[in-house]
C-alpha cells in the first residue's frame, strides 16, 4: 500500500492549479459535453445569471466529494462562476467520467478523480480535495456519502487522542478500508498536528447528497 501511495503525485496546470486525472488530452471532448449539459440544466444556469453580479462565494473554499460527471461539472462551474474556489474528488471509484475530470482540471477547479481508482487512491483524492494548505481547509463541503466529512471528524478525534499522548494506530481496526483512512490521517498529523482542528474551525457547513450520508453524519 505504501508503495502505491508513493506513486501518487499532484500535478499542476500552467496556471498552477493542482490536479490528478487520467488523461488531460481528453479535456476538449469534456468541454464539448459540458456545454451540451448546460442546456439541460436550466436551474443552475439561472443561478449563474441571477447571482454572478453579486459574487456570493467570493473568497469561499468549497470542497466537493461527488460523482465527477458532466452534470457535476456544471455544478462546479456554477460555484466558480459565483467566485468560489473549488477542490473536487469523486465519491465513487468507478463513476468518474475521465474527459469531464480533465476539462474541469484544465479550465475551472482542482480535481483529483479518475475512473477505476483503488481504495487507497480514492481516499488519497479525498484528502487532497480537503487540503487547502495553511489556510485551514474548506468553508463548505459538498458531500455524497459523508466520506469527506468523515475524514475531518476522524482527524479531529485523532488529534484529541494525540494531545493525551495516545498515537493513532491504523491497526486498531480490522476494517481494511478504515485502516487506509486512519493511515492517511496519521501521515497528515506528522506534517501538522492541528491539521484537522484547523479544518473544523474554518468549516461553516456541509451539504449532503444521500440519506446514507445523512445517517453517517448523525
Automatic annotation (TrEMBL):
SUPFAM superfamilies: Formate/glycerate dehydrogenase catalytic domain-like. One of its GO terms (biological process) is S-adenosylmethionine cycle. Pfam families: AdoHcyase. GO terms for cellular component: cytosol. It comes from the Eukaryota. One of its GO terms (molecular function) is adenosylhomocysteinase activity. Transmembrane segments: none annotated. PANTHER family: ADENOSYLHOMOCYSTEINASE. Adenosylhomocysteine is a competitive inhibitor of S-adenosyl-L-methionine-dependent methyl transferase reactions; therefore adenosylhomocysteinase may play a key role in the control of methylations via regulation of the intracellular concentration of adenosylhomocysteine. This is Adenosylhomocysteinase. It comes from Colocasia esculenta (Wild taro).
Amino acid at each position: 500500500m505504501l508503495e502505491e501511495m508513493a506513486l501518487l503525485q499532484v500535478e499542476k496546470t500552467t496556471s498552477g492549479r493542482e490536479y490528478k486525472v487520467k488523461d488531460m488530452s481528453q479535456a476538449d471532448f469534456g468541454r464539448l459535453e459540458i456545454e451540451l449539459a448546460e442546456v439541460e440544466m436550466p436551474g443552475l444556469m439561472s443561478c449563474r445569471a441571477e447571482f454572478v453580479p453579486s459574487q456570493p462565494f467570493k473568497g469561499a473554499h468549497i470542497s466537493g466529494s461527488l460523482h465527477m460527471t458532466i452534470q457535476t461539472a456544471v455544478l462546479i462551474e456554477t460555484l466558480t462562476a459565483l467566485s468560489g474556489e473549488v477542490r473536487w474528488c469523486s465519491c465513487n471509484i468507478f463513476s468518474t467520467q475521465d474527459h469531464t475530470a480533465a476539462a474541469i482540471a484544465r479550465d475551472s477547479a482542482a480535481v483529483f478523480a479518475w475512473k477505476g481508482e483503488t481504495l487507497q487512491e480514492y481516499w488519497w483524492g479525498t484528502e487532497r480535495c480537503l487540503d487547502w494548505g495553511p489556510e485551514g481547509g474548506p468553508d463548505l463541503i459538498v458531500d455524497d456519502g459523508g466520506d469527506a466529512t468523515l475524514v475531518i471528524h476522524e482527524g479531529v478525534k485523532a488529534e484529541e487522542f494525540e494531545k493525551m499522548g495516545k498515537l493513532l494506530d491504523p491497526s486498531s481496526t480490522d476494517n481494511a478500508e478504515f485502516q487506509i483512512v486512519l493511515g492517511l490521517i496519521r501521515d497528515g498529523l506528522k506534517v501538522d498536528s492541528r491539521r484537522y482542528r484547523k479544518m473544523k474551525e474554518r468549516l461553516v457547513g456541509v451539504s449532503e447528497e444521500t440519506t446514507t450520508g445523512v445517517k453517517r453524519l448523525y
